[in-house]
Amino acid sequence: MRNLTRALFGLIALACAALVATAIFYMQEELGLEPCPMCVLSRYTFIGIGVVSLAAALHGPRGGALKAYAIVVTLLAAIGIGISARHSYLQHFPPKIETCGADIGFMIQNMPFSKAFPKIFAGTGSCTAVDWTFLGLSIPEWAGVWFAAMAVAVLWLAFVRARRA
Questions:
Q1: Cα 152 from chain centroid?
Q2: What's the CA gap between 104 and 107, in Å, rounded?
Q3: What pLDDT is attached to residue 32?
Q4: Fewer C-beta within 10 Å: the chain N or C terminus?
């Protein structure tokens, strides 16, 4: 069981690293796709899941610790699913007036966090653009699939598989 736990969390950490690297080095640098604020938040969420999963892979938890890691990963994945759902909604139902708002760095540097944070989730004109698809799904839709798969995997490991072992 401990080897499966380490392997699954390690695989999730590796997947997160690969997804963020693909976003930065392929989609952003090679294809020239600039990330919108929601894309940046999704990246941070994948990084968070990756760090927690790497810690779990190194720790090899059992019992309550395994459940704690699974809950943290699931909560982060739920946040990612929320970001992906909002982003996908903006792509499918763009606002009537599209504007290219300020990027996340500008907002955080020039506004109080309490004002910048809601604007990040409001999205900008670039959040409505569908610049890339694979098998009919856009980038935030694929991110949502990955977030859901990671949550299901750790919940299965911690609450279903652990009960049988």
A1: 14
A2: 5
A3: 79
A4: C
123, pLDDT greater than 50: no
User: Looking at 29-33, 60-64, 86-90, 137-141, which range is the least confident one?
Assistant: 29-33
Cα–Cα distance measured from residue 48 to residue 25, given in angstroms and rounded to the nearest whole number: 19
Residues 6+ apart with CB under 8 A from 122: 101
Angle value at C-alpha 90, between 136 and 101, nearest 5 degrees: 125
Place 82 in a pLDDT band, splitting at 50, 70 and 90: very high
pLDDT (0 to 100) of residue 78: 95
Q: Is residue 23 helix, strand or coil? A: helix
Q: 44 is written with which tokens? A: 């941070």
Output DSSP code: residue 161.
I
Q: How many Cα atoms sit within 13 Å of 126 on the Cβ side? A: 14
Distance CA 13, CA 21 (A): 12
| E strand spans, 22-136 | 133-134
Is 89 strand, coil or helix?
A: helix
CATH class of 2-164: mainly alpha
**Structure tokens, 124:** 């900008």
Query: Which segments within 29-152 are labelled E, that is strand?
Result: 133-134, 137-138
